[in-house]
Amino acid sequence: MIKAFLIDDEPKSIAILQNKLERFCKDVTVVGSTQDPTQAKKLLATHQPDLVFLDVAMPEMSGFDVLQTIEEPTFELIFATGFDQYAVEAIKHCAIGYLVKPIDNDELMAAVQKARENISEKTALQKNRALIDNLQITKFQNKKVVVPTQDGLEFLAIGDILHCEGKDGYTQLHFTNRKPILSSQNIGHFAKMFDQQEFFLVHKSHLVNLHHIDKYLNEGYLLIREHKIPVSRNRRANFLEVIRNR
Length: 246
Hints:
Order of helices and strands: EHEHEHEHEHHEEEEEHEEEEEH
Distance between the termini: 51 Å
Low-confidence stretches: none
Helix content: 25-40%
Shape: elongated
Number of domains: 2
Number of helices: 8
Oligomer: single chain
CATH class of the largest domain: Alpha Beta
């Protein structure tokens, strides 16, 4: 059984989520909940849950504030949020689960299934720390991203990524300071995750870090260090406009 704890300032949201968990996630037991985020640290220490559902937007403390009060956050997290692009992007960069309110039943079951897998892999502490670190960094290129690979999770500095190359449903990431790695996520995953002012999908199989472009060739190629990367004809105008506006 998975022990879960719910943190949300709205009692109705807690009741709805608990009901959904009882109906759709039979192996999840809610061991406690609170509407007061200032009490979360003490209650989490008491209950020692495997999984915490944490609302992002609360009046006294945000869900991010709650997380930063906990010295060793070893529990798996699923954030609940209204549509907040900043919150969603921060969470996605660290491979942490999230649900957009109102919570969809299928999305809840999928998030719990992913959390179930992650609990067995014991990666929560690393991911939670990466999120805490990122919340304290304002410059996008200085943040870290969590990338699943065949060997586990890689915690990578975004600024070190030169470009991402799609290969048969996987993605090879190229770096300034290390050998490439192969991620089990497809190129579309990274295109959605990275800031469009910092990265650009110049081709259906190539996503480039705009900070590392050395040269654009008129025949439709980019040079990034030793890499020659094609720019699709139908993306060139948008790409050049982005470059001019930087």
